[in-house]
Amino acid sequence: MANHKSAEKRARQNEKRRVRNKAVKTRVKHATKEVRRTAAETSKEEALAKLKAAQSIINKAHKKGVVHKKTAARKISRLAKLVNAITIF
Fold first, then answer.
1. Averaged over 4-15, what is the pLDDT?
2. For residues 61 and 66, what is the distance between their CA atoms, to the nearest angstrom?
3. Position 86 confidence tier, pLDDT thresholds 50, 70, 90
4. What is the mean pLDDT of residues 3-10?
5. pTM to 2 decimals?
6. Which sequence spans correspond to the domains of the chain?
7. What's the CA gap between 29 and 74, in Å, rounded?
8. Taking a C-beta distance cutoff of 8 angstroms, is the pair 32, 56 a contact?
Protein backbone atom coordinates (compact mmCIF):
# COMPACT_ATOMS: atom_id res chain seq x y z
CA MET A 1 0.00 0.00 0.00
CA ALA A 2 1.11 3.56 -0.68
CA ASN A 3 2.78 5.38 2.20
CA HIS A 4 3.43 8.81 0.73
CA LYS A 5 0.88 11.41 -0.26
CA SER A 6 2.06 11.42 -3.87
CA ALA A 7 1.98 7.61 -4.02
CA GLU A 8 -1.58 7.60 -2.67
CA LYS A 9 -2.62 10.06 -5.37
CA ARG A 10 -0.90 7.96 -8.02
CA ALA A 11 -2.78 4.87 -6.77
CA ARG A 12 -6.10 6.74 -7.05
CA GLN A 13 -5.26 7.90 -10.58
CA ASN A 14 -4.24 4.40 -11.63
CA GLU A 15 -7.51 2.96 -10.33
CA LYS A 16 -9.57 5.54 -12.27
CA ARG A 17 -7.63 4.80 -15.45
CA ARG A 18 -7.92 1.04 -14.96
CA VAL A 19 -11.71 1.25 -14.72
CA ARG A 20 -11.95 3.60 -17.71
CA ASN A 21 -9.65 1.40 -19.84
CA LYS A 22 -11.64 -1.70 -18.90
CA ALA A 23 -14.85 -0.06 -20.10
CA VAL A 24 -13.28 0.95 -23.41
CA LYS A 25 -11.80 -2.52 -23.99
CA THR A 26 -15.16 -4.12 -23.27
CA ARG A 27 -16.82 -1.79 -25.76
CA VAL A 28 -14.26 -2.81 -28.41
CA LYS A 29 -14.92 -6.50 -27.72
CA HIS A 30 -18.69 -6.05 -27.98
CA ALA A 31 -18.38 -4.14 -31.26
CA THR A 32 -16.09 -6.83 -32.69
CA LYS A 33 -18.44 -9.59 -31.63
CA GLU A 34 -21.39 -7.74 -33.15
CA VAL A 35 -19.64 -7.45 -36.53
CA ARG A 36 -18.74 -11.15 -36.52
CA ARG A 37 -22.29 -12.16 -35.61
CA THR A 38 -23.82 -9.89 -38.24
CA ALA A 39 -21.41 -11.14 -40.91
CA ALA A 40 -22.40 -14.73 -40.19
CA GLU A 41 -26.15 -14.19 -40.04
CA THR A 42 -27.32 -11.25 -42.15
CA SER A 43 -26.59 -9.36 -45.35
CA LYS A 44 -23.39 -7.67 -46.41
CA GLU A 45 -24.94 -4.18 -46.15
CA GLU A 46 -25.77 -4.64 -42.47
CA ALA A 47 -22.33 -6.09 -41.81
CA LEU A 48 -20.71 -3.07 -43.49
CA ALA A 49 -22.74 -0.73 -41.28
CA LYS A 50 -21.66 -2.62 -38.15
CA LEU A 51 -18.06 -2.60 -39.40
CA LYS A 52 -18.12 1.18 -39.78
CA ALA A 53 -19.36 1.57 -36.21
CA ALA A 54 -16.75 -0.87 -34.92
CA GLN A 55 -13.97 0.99 -36.74
CA SER A 56 -14.99 4.19 -34.99
CA ILE A 57 -14.99 2.50 -31.58
CA ILE A 58 -11.59 0.86 -32.17
CA ASN A 59 -10.05 4.11 -33.42
CA LYS A 60 -11.36 5.94 -30.35
CA ALA A 61 -9.78 3.29 -28.13
CA HIS A 62 -6.46 3.88 -29.88
CA LYS A 63 -6.82 7.65 -29.58
CA LYS A 64 -7.39 7.31 -25.83
CA GLY A 65 -4.27 5.15 -25.51
CA VAL A 66 -6.13 2.02 -24.45
CA VAL A 67 -4.93 -0.08 -27.38
CA HIS A 68 -1.77 0.25 -29.46
CA LYS A 69 -1.95 1.75 -32.95
CA LYS A 70 -0.98 -1.51 -34.67
CA THR A 71 -3.38 -3.54 -32.53
CA ALA A 72 -6.22 -1.27 -33.60
CA ALA A 73 -5.17 -1.53 -37.25
CA ARG A 74 -4.97 -5.32 -37.01
CA LYS A 75 -8.44 -5.61 -35.46
CA ILE A 76 -9.99 -3.35 -38.11
CA SER A 77 -8.17 -5.20 -40.91
CA ARG A 78 -9.38 -8.60 -39.77
CA LEU A 79 -12.96 -7.41 -39.44
CA ALA A 80 -12.86 -5.77 -42.88
CA LYS A 81 -11.42 -8.95 -44.38
CA LEU A 82 -14.25 -10.96 -42.83
CA VAL A 83 -16.97 -8.62 -44.10
CA ASN A 84 -15.47 -8.34 -47.59
CA ALA A 85 -15.41 -12.14 -47.87
CA ILE A 86 -19.22 -12.24 -47.71
CA THR A 87 -20.54 -13.14 -51.13
CA ILE A 88 -23.65 -11.47 -52.51
CA PHE A 89 -26.24 -13.75 -54.03
1. 95
2. 5
3. confident
4. 94
5. 0.86
6. 5-84
7. 14
8. no
